[in-house]
Design a protein that fits this description.
CATH architecture: 3-Layer(aba) Sandwich
CATH superfamily: SGNH hydrolase
Strand content: 5-15%
Largest sheet: 5 strands, parallel
Number of strands: 8
Radius of gyration: 21 Å
CATH topology: Rossmann fold
Shape: globular
Number of helices: 10
Strand order of the largest sheet: 2-1-3-7-8
Order of helices and strands: EHEHHHHEHEEEHEHEHH
Distance between the termini: 69 Å
């Protein structure tokens, strides 16, 4: 353990990454890598079992047409799924993942299952072979070459995470590995995804080994989340509190909540509540945007009148 400045790697999405950012900002950790936009089955097929290879990034980039207003981010999403850039999302100076795991002893690896919960991989049927994660709305012609595949079941995802943890453990035997189960209490208008999010934690607990710890889904009040308008994010203080709990887990051996943790029954009835409150929040946000636009237009008109005098 590097007690002077412990090292953390995030692997998943905003849940693991923003928590790792809080560790670096408030608890003296160094964030050494951030793996994003990789679904567990995709990573296992391409880089653990090596059953197949991803489509060539150069060929893919030449085949599709990017929408101008989203081209930069779309290219980053694609690059994040290839070894040269993997682990460097929002960390351009970081060492790519595979080199990092071979060269550096990491103290804490945080994983979350957002990609498994939300992502459908694009399956090429013409022009290229293989699967890749992408947001089709960022392209002008991506859907001309294939279709979106299925989502992962909670059981499939949990089994994949056990495989992923085993692979990481073989390369980082000293590391603490924690899986952060993605929240579901504020998922709205998608009952199927809502239950897959909950069942991932249930299934992973059944498969848990001593190789890793599990943090169950968090259930903060609505005003500490972004609500159904932005169901995937908490307010910053929740990530900071989670980082503090993980800091204690590593240094003071404080146990994380485990399979005895049960969300209140009301959580299972929340989608309709969040649906209503989410609509209210969305209405308030739209009103604020309109007021801000009105104030901006008023300032412009005032300055124009002064200029014309």
């Amino acid at each position: 353990m590097n007690t002077s400045q412990p090292l953390v790697l995030s692997f998943g999405s905003c849940l693991s990454h923003l928590t790792a950012v809080q560790l670096s900002m408030f608890y003296g950790w160094k964030l050494v890598g951030n793996v994003a936009h990789n679904r567990s089955d995709q990573f296992i097929d391409y880089y653990i079992d090596k059953r197949t290879t991803p489509p060539s990034l150069a060929d893919l980039s030449a085949l599709v047409r990017f929408k101008p207003d989203s081209e930069d981010y779309a290219r980053r999403i694609l690059a994040n799924q290839y070894p040269e850039e993997m682990g460097r999302h929002d960390l351009p100076e970081a060492t790519p993942l595979f080199e990092l795991l071979e060269e550096t002893k990491i103290d804490l690896i945080l994983l979350d299952n957002f990609m498994d919960l939300s992502a459908q991989l694009f399956e090429f049927q013409t022009g290229l072979e293989g699967k890749i994660f992408s947001n089709a709305h960022m392209f002008e012609n991506l859907t001309d070459f294939g279709k979106l595949g299925h989502v992962l079941s909670a059981r499939q995802s949990a089994e994949n995470f056990v495989r992923l943890v085993q692979w990481l453990r073989a390369r980082q035997p000293q590391a603490k590995i924690v899986v952060l189960s993605f929240q579901y209490s504020q998922i709205d208008k998608n009952a199927e995804r809502y239950h897959r999010a909950r069942d991932f934690w249930v299934e992973l607990v059944k498969l848990k080994t001593e190789d890793f710890s599990i943090c169950p889904p968090l259930h903060p009040p609505l005003d500490r989340t972004k609500g159904c308008v932005d169901w995937a994010h908490f307010e910053e203080d929740i990530y900071r509190a989670l980082a503090g709990m993980l800091h204690l887990h590593v240094f003071a051996h404080t146990p994380l909540p485990d399979n005895n943790y049960v969300l209140p029954p009301a959580a299972l009835r929340r989608p309709s509540q969040y649906n209503l409150q989410g609509r209210i929040a969305l209405g308030i946000n739209r009103l604020r945007e309109r007021l801000a636009l009105m104030r901006y237009n008023l300032r412009i008109r005032t300055r124009l009148k002064q200029f014309l005098k």
